[in-house]
Write a structure and sequence with these properties.
88 residues, mainly alpha
Length: 88
């Protein structure tokens, strides 16, 4: 059971919660900016290295099907499509 005391008690709780969320968000943004300044790449790691991407492009130019390349490289079809770019 919640007992409210004072006229503005619910409003005060709401404002306190909103202030806490805003402070948390500001800290998160500052942390992300600091990481980016250090040059750290954020996000999921790439499935293929640059050398593998070059190999995929060469295989595609040599006439291999994308589905076969994907099977050989052990990655999804769309990863190969993305690696081939405008060549497809």
């Amino acid at each position: 059971m919640i007992i409210f005391k004072g006229r503005h008690f619910p409003k005060d709780i709401l404002l306190t919660c909103l202030a806490a969320f805003a402070e948390y968000e500001a800290g998160t943004r500052a942390g992300l900016q600091a990481v980016k300044r250090r040059g750290v790449r954020l996000g999921r790691p790439e499935a293929l290295t640059q050398a593998q991407k070059q190999q995929v492009r060469k295989m595609y130019q040599d006439g291999e099907r994308m589905a076969d390349i994907a099977r050989a490289m052990g990655v999804p079809y769309h990863t190969i499509r993305r690696a081939c770019g405008r060549m497809a």
